[in-house]
């Protein structure tokens, strides 16, 4: 096998290669290609028996019962979803007659999908009010674990949550927010972020949460796209050793929006105070900036609920694709809420009283569905964590789990891999007796990380629930149910959730059957699916429904094995999955090109030990510009400034020219191979290169590797 020339930093892979020799190299890195060499169904682990003796409550007796319900969800979707919706949610008024109507065939007319149309409900009421009304006001909704480990526990009961939500909601109304307006939220991962989201939901405003790691420019683009006149933010926060000056970025974004629009777009900023004002000065522009605590203390304590149609928008969340600007994915109230709730309930076997901890930030869809909406509908008690898992050291997550007696832990493969690097001692240092179920999301979990998670963290007594889904799907789509009799296969996300009909199609869009490999699509609508792209419905149609007629195209490749398990093989477009976050190549490229010295840029994924994929940028400089270390730094800085730190390229490869077809299309396939294999790349690795307009470019590019 070829040797990987990257430094051996730690051993994560012992059994990844397994029975087949490694295709690429025998180093310790987690390569995408390793994942592709799974010999399917080779290893299987029944859900541990101990799980059923330790955990008393189970939603399903066994896999038979689960399968029967799945069958019903497919055979009689109207009845199934109607029952679920009545059982799980509280409705002000039930839907008219049809549970669902839709069109997935672009040739037949506009793509649409509606669930529970005419039904009236409110997401905030379902998440908070009704639990307080039912006498659970004193139950803790959130334990807030800050960046620093401290003895005193900050928490919100459901009643306290409601009090803050009502006050903030009244304040938003006073500041002119009406049903359908988009309110931007740019905050660290603290309970007040959830409060801000729910306050919007209460009055029918659509929230647009922007992850706190995004730059001023990214925030400004989102403010402009959704015409947000109100921004809820925070002075700043500590993340590990660093201080993030969020308010300054928010100000810069508001300024950019003003320049772009020609008028003051953002008219109010409500600023939550996290930092010590004696040590950290933030400028508050008197006419539009107000402190959260002052706003809440002077606000009316009660705020009426706005009853929404099931199909009214609940939120917009931006996500990257391979082309153009991020898309504002729109989710609606009824279907989304139901789907988030029942996936949370069944995937994690959640019952009220359990303590659940999801490490995701509310800036991403995982936080929306599994820190806010799903768990709250289910009256969960949760831990919300603001810090990083390695601060002050790598025992942090296990200490948190012990401190709050966490039962279900939901995290990401990248995080597991980053903790594996520190060794088992950090895990063993802490008590993990309370943990009953472990789950992951964001990318395929490589079997080695799966086994480590199961063995070292779960002591072989916890199911591992690897959930495949997307911003667009609203909730889990494919997962291994933690049910008696289910056989888990490390590296496979398992089987479809209720109501989900996945199909695997070939290049021509033909549905494949049995054991197969191809593009993962979804054939039937489900309540949690996106309804549109904000302001651009045709983009929704062309992105998801044009590639294969009649199907929702996920953008992922997958294999289905003989037992009907799905094995995700990664994105089939030019989206890069960095630590479970979707990075659009086009965005990174335009940030690079915006730097005056760059003539052309092409960005591709490269396998990365911890992050799963890293960002590898080929850069062609303008005439007269010389490659240098300073320039490299400046380019990385430019990307950070334009988009955000998570998009910083890992590698900048100087490219005298890029490999193109005669029609001028960059051959990314070749760039990916060179990025992956470096100088060891051979012509046979590159496949068909006959369409290259200048074949010598490849050799030249390779010779610049590492320069
Ligand atoms: C993309 C969606 C869903 C919340 C987090 C990311 C990849 C996600 C898995 C998994 C294999 C996964 C896919 C998908 N992905 N979870 N369990 N196994 N791949 O949401 O930013 O919308 O990204 O993440 O490629 O398309 P997102």
Automatic annotation (TrEMBL):
PROSITE patterns: AMP_BINDING. GO terms for molecular function: acetate-CoA ligase activity; AMP binding; ATP binding. Its EC number is 6.2.1.1. Residues 587-665 form the AMP-binding enzyme C-terminal domain. It catalyses: acetate + ATP + CoA = acetyl-CoA + AMP + diphosphate. Pfam families: ACAS_N, AMP-binding, AMP-binding_C. Residues 134-526 form the AMP-dependent synthetase/ligase domain. SUPFAM superfamilies: Acetyl-CoA synthetase-like. The lineage of its organism: Eukaryota, Rhodophyta, Bangiophyceae, Galdieriales, Galdieriaceae. Belongs to the ATP-dependent AMP-binding enzyme family. Keywords: ATP-binding, Ligase, Nucleotide-binding. InterPro entries: Ac_CoA_lig, ACAS_N, AMP-bd_C, AMP-bd_C_sf, AMP-binding_CS, AMP-dep_synth/lig_dom, ANL_N_sf. GO terms for biological process: acetyl-CoA biosynthetic process from acetate. It comes from Galdieria yellowstonensis. This is Acetyl-coenzyme A synthetase. Residues 66-127 form the Acetyl-coenzyme A synthetase N-terminal domain.
